Amino acid sequence: MKAESSNRLWKQIPRLPRQSGWSFRLRLAGGSVLCGGLFLAGMLGASGQQAPRPASGTQAAGGGKETPSEPVPRVAVGEINGTPGASLMIPLYFTPDPQNPLRSLTVEVDYVSNNLKFQKASRGLVTEQAGADVSTTLTDGKPDAKNVTRSKLRISVALMEKDPKQGIPDGLLAYLLFQISMDAKPFAIKLNTAVLAAENIKNPPQKVAKVNTVPGLVVIETPDMMPEATCFFFTH
Q1: Which of 33, 74, 129, 230 is a Cys-bridge partner for 28, taking CB atoms 3.0 to 4.6 Å apart?
Q2: How far apart are CA 47 and CA 180, in angstroms?
Q3: C-alpha to C-alpha distance for 236 and 234, rounded to whole angstroms
Q4: How far are the Cα atoms of 24, 31, 33, 186, 224 from residue 230, in angstroms, in the given order?
Q5: Residue 159: which domain range?
Q6: Does residue 231 fall inside a structural domain?
Q7: Please, which pLDDT band fits residue 225 given cuts at 50, 70 and 90?
Q8: Contact in structure between 23 and 76 (CB atoms under 8 Å)
Q9: Is residue 229 in a domain?
Q10: φ/ψ of residue 34, rounded to 5
Q11: Structure confidence at residue 183 as a pLDDT band (50, 70, 90)
Q12: What phi and psi, each to the nearest 5 degrees, are found at residue 99?
């Protein structure tokens, strides 16, 4: 009976459409999310590697021609699962346009924040290597008639050099640390993503009007819905 009840509950969770192309998803249980994320970040930093991410152009099954690459430049927020009370480290990725490298960009993430609270951002491997600055600004909205509150998180990434020779590198820009409230119910929260401003490395800098985005997703689960091991990572 318990298994049937869990299955019915799972089917009731609103599942949002998946984006084509690459996405990054971590499935972690309970309070081990933060320790697992820190462990992954430490291991990647020690090895000089970035978090796993599928290539933008992939070989079709059966040896056919490659599937088309997604448009660049592109910013993408990761996908992650967590339980009530868990801390989540959500990756923010950037794929540059080799023909028009960027020196700065400002990303806005809009989301329902009743049970999802932003804590802080940590620089990713490529921003550390490039000496780029990462800053955040959080704006909390007021509850609407249905008591739904939305928040807007702005992440600004900028190279510190006055006349950089190379733009913001390809890879992991930052980890965004969020906290799920203890009384959160099973739900899927879409992290709507937009780029508000971007400039290239020309002197003087020129504005870049179009930067593509891939939204993120947070799926809140209850412990009895997660038969997986306590702490492991996978991508799909």
Answers
A1: 33
A2: 30
A3: 7
A4: 19, 9, 9, 18, 12
A5: 25-47+73-222
A6: no
A7: low
A8: yes
A9: no
A10: -65, -45
A11: very high
A12: -85, -15
